[in-house]
Amino acid sequence: MNELLKRLGIGALIGLAVAIAVSIGSQKISFVKDLLDGYEFGSYDSRMRARVENVEESSIDSVVIIDIEQNSIEGLGNYNDWPHAYHGQLIDVVTSGNPKALLFDIIFDPENTFNYDLVNALISENAPQEEYLSQETDQYLVSNDPSRFVLSTIESQKVYHALVFELEDTLNFQYKMDSEPEGYDRPDHLINLPLDQALRLPIGDRLTNTHMDLINAAKRAGSANFPQDEDGIIRRAPTAIYFEGPNHVYPTLVLAAVMDILGIPADGFDYDFDNLILRLSDTTGTVIREIPIDDQGRMFVNYYGRFKTFYYLPYMYCFDPEMLDPSYWEGKVALVGASLPGLMDLRNTPVQETFSGVEIHANVIHSVLQNEFVSITDAQTNLWVLLIICILLGALVSIPAKPLYTLPVPLLAIAVWVIFTYYAFFNDLRMWEVIRPAISMGVTYLGIFLYNFLIVEKDKRFLKDTFGTYISPELIDQMFDAKEEPSLGGEEGYHTAFFTDIQSFSAFSEKLSATDLVELLNDYLTEMTNILLDNKGTLDKYIGDAIVAFYGAPAPVDDHEYWACLTAVKMQEGLAELRAKWQGEGDRWPEIVHHMQNRIGINTGPMVTGNMGSTMRMNYTMMGDTVNLAARLEASAKQYGVYIQVAEETYKICKDKFIWRDLDYVIVMGKTEPAQVFELITETGNMPPGYDKLLPAFHEAVKLYRNQNWVKAIEAFKASDELEDMFPGRKTNPSRVYIPRCEHYKENPPGDDWDGSWALTKK
Q1: How far is CA 60 from CA 57, 96, 301, 362, 367, in A?
Q2: What is the CATH number of domain 491-682?
Q3: CB distance 97 to 326 below 8 Å
Q4: Which of 275, 346, 350, 586 has the highest count of CB atoms within 10 angstroms of its CB?
Q5: How far apart are the C-alpha atoms of 617 and 610, rounded to whole Å?
Q6: Longest CA–CA separation in the chain, Å
Q7: pTM for this one?
Q8: Residues 296-337: tens digit of each pLDDT
Q9: In terms of C-beta density within 10 A (0-12 exposed, 13-18 middle, 19 or more buried), how is residue 209 classed?
């Protein structure tokens, strides 16, 4: 009995230690936290997808989406040519049916008004006076009067318009705003919050809307921003935005409408960040909604189904009362948005990779009105769960003298816990953690096993590595035949990361049909992937038009830095051949295809490669700071107008094998230390025409810049700019980038301790 009690006590203590270690370690060690949070998001996504798997299309009609889709484009013409009067007519028809609210998830330009000059002429004193012409004029104005949109918005008192907030971008001279744009004066659009609460919210530096008359006319206006998580998926929706310059707080577009629907005054928002709850109170002070939030005031989106779970109606049917009786809108919420890929409002969500942005708003407002919210367990609750599970499991598996006999116990416990989390989510939208409890249970069992193995039995052996490594397809086949499955995990090594994507790819979506876009992208990706594989690269994944790859894993590659750089050069050559092919096909492709360019970012350093994901789905991929910098270099190449940007570690190994431009010392977004970056031009011995003069001139200008000789540097950069190759599609070049920077430093010297670095303000 004493021996049993001893084993139970040791087992419980090991469980306690594991629970504390996992809880603290996964919160305090940043890369561990990020890794586990990523897996936790993955488990969240799987539960959300499972919950909505059998939800039928168009099953929710209390919130209806007025969709700018293909039929409406075919019936009413190119969307960009629609007169604003169409929207006014839509408002008149829909609001006459007494909906709860009409929300526009669209940003409007006041100058984008069809036949603006003609309409002004018709309403002037010189308009035709003849009766038959007057009738025709009146009929024309019904459909084309640019003021109708604003007037209808005012008269309806049920229309809500979207605001878009951005962060400051000094590099592109987009500075922080101290007040709302001129002409926007609706203090009743704001909500009242104490400053300590406002500072916890997502921040906006700039309000970018231009149609201030329309925003002023709205019953309320609210932010339409939907920030993505780091993996590009939209799981959380802000409830309000802090416009820092004027010290104002705006609700989101959805919450702006909810305020009127539920009778929430401007001071009815109470953010309880200690308990992660947003309380909404009516004019009597009665709390009518308690919305679970995160530490930035964001709510997890309760997705009710996949794309088109909400009822979609074509726009052209809704603004014509003869097609749809206005009484249909009685008591409904209507949202106007676009599902066409070319109109740039498709997002990645947990339930589906391609999802209309307006339907995310629909999910949020339906969730608030139905009082159905996703709630996430707080840190204290999670700690207690770990403690109870690990202590009980530790004691249970310690009952036999040999814990190996109890191996099914932790496996069963993990299975039961996973089932419980799915059940809790399906029934009350309660989001319990999966990954940390599962890891804790596994580590608790392993700890007890090792204690017996190493301490009790005194059997000194080495543990086998539990993390699998990437293997060839042939070995994968062997593992399949032997019924061996690859396991999660990875290993750290010194490799080269490689990122590339097409410049301004979103513009292609506007110019090409979906079928042509797929054909073009397949053409491009096939050629680029062949070049990658021919030059010893490992394909990680495709992300839309982007290719993610690395060198040196799973199989070692000598001189992987060189092969990565050579691949970049060959890809530029291959893309040039593709452009020539597309141009040779005549009118098959629009002009934008003939000038397609891609950007490439390369960095070498330590990273983790291996099988990562969930037990249901794994991907051999890479992670680490080296990877992040390579991705940032690919994105920031746009700012310099270059197409291959390489970090110093790669350059040092390959500097004699290629022609380079010493580009800059930069601090990329998300990092604090500067990195020296270079433009890769081509292989040594293949100098492009004119670069023998350009590179010395540019490097001399850079030398003057780093010596803080601003006046001479400006003249030198202007001279090198004259030598730059401004081919089609190149909007800027490195020489032009430096000129305003020198002007800035001339007026604001960086000081004697300046290290020559420049902080990038966007990815």
Answers
A1: 8, 22, 16, 10, 12
A2: 3.30.70.1230
A3: yes
A4: 350
A5: 13
A6: 111
A7: 0.56
A8: 999 999 999 999 999 999 999 998 888 899 999 999 999 999
A9: buried
